[in-house]
Amino acid sequence: MKSLSAVTSSNRRPSGRSGPNASPSNFSGTSAPAIPNRGSSRSRNNSFFAGRTPRAGSVSTRVVVWVEGPSDRLYLRKWLELYDSELREGLHYSFAFYGGSVLSHFSAGELDEIGDYIKILRINRHAYVVMDHDGEAGSELADRKRRILDSLTDNYCWVTQGREIENYLSPHLLHRAYKGKYEQIEQATFGDFERIEEFLIKCEGPGSFDKVDAAHRVVACMKLADLDRMDLRSKVERVAKYIRTANHMIE
Questions:
Q1: I need a surface site. Which of 31, 163, 172, 183 has the fewest CB within 10 A?
Q2: 211-219 and 70-83 helices cross at what angle (nearest 10)?
Q3: In terms of domains, do 38 and 122 share one?
Q4: Which residues contact 1 (CB under 8 A, 6 or more apart)?
Q5: pTM, to two decimals
Q6: Looking at residue 45, which CATH number applies to its domain?
Q7: Are 152 and 41 members of one domain?
Q8: Per DSSP, what are the bridge partners of residue 65?
Q9: Half-sphere exposure of 199 (CA within 13 A, CB side)
């Protein structure tokens, strides 16, 4: 299995408020401890946690928001900015990446390693985890994700209502993002569990799709009203309140 790739948006204590375009830097330190080997051949050969893991001291903000990848960070940072403009990445919260395919490496029986994974997510006292639901409409949450959700509870974990975080983007927003280039987008229906790549191709949009490029394009024209899709506004509100509480900010 691949080793954990964790990245944070703030490795050192900021001297002031970071700008919205601050880029993430390496999370792991030079002397970070390794997850102990459990001794089984599966652990020795296939342990997802082989190698270095981040130390709690690597993070200087009070809250660490764990997301799957860079595009998720761009969306969530913009949503928080729209909902609560006082919150600043690098000052009140940081992002850490756990890798888009991390959870797929675990089978339902690998409970010990999932337990280690949850411990890593909690390297910061105030951790919040955002996960894609994945699967198809009506499908149950995968066992490995269910265990993480049950352990962290809804108060500290957000599982997307749709397939993935991109499903929170409305056709109207995508139409604005692509500057009306693909006229069919605005009238089309973007299913909660439809892949965004398939949706755009269906609308005669771009034949190829890069999530990070698309995220930059979308957040540039995003408005507060765009939070009114599925449970997005309530989830962003919950994360914002969590960050405020951890930072002792007055409502």
A1: 31
A2: 10
A3: yes
A4: 46, 47, 48, 50, 105
A5: 0.72
A6: 3.40.50
A7: yes
A8: 95, 128
A9: 20
How sure is the predictor about 179, in pLDDT bands with cuts at 50, 70 and 90? confident
Contact by Cβ (8 Å): 11, 26: yes
Residue 20 lies inside a defined structural domain of this protein: no
Question: Of 112 and 179, which is predicted with more confidence?
Answer: 179
Residues 144 and 178 in one domain: no
Contact (CB, 8 A) for 169 and 232: no
Spatial distance between the Cα atoms of 192 and 195, rounded to a whole number of angstroms: 9
Residue whose C-alpha is closest to residue 83's, from 245, 246, 232, 250: 232
Domain that holds residue 179: 166-230
Looking at the structure, tell me whether residues 77 and 196 fall in a common domain.
no
Answer yes or no: is pLDDT of 20 > 70: no
pLDDT, position 148 = 81
Please give the mean pLDDT across all residues of the chain.
74
Which one is predicted more confidently, 154 or 34? 154
Count of domains for the chain? 2
Q: Is the pLDDT of residue 7 over 70?
A: no
Please name the residue ranges forming H helices in the chain: 41-46, 70-83, 111-121, 143-152, 171-177, 184-187, 196-202, 211-219, 232-246
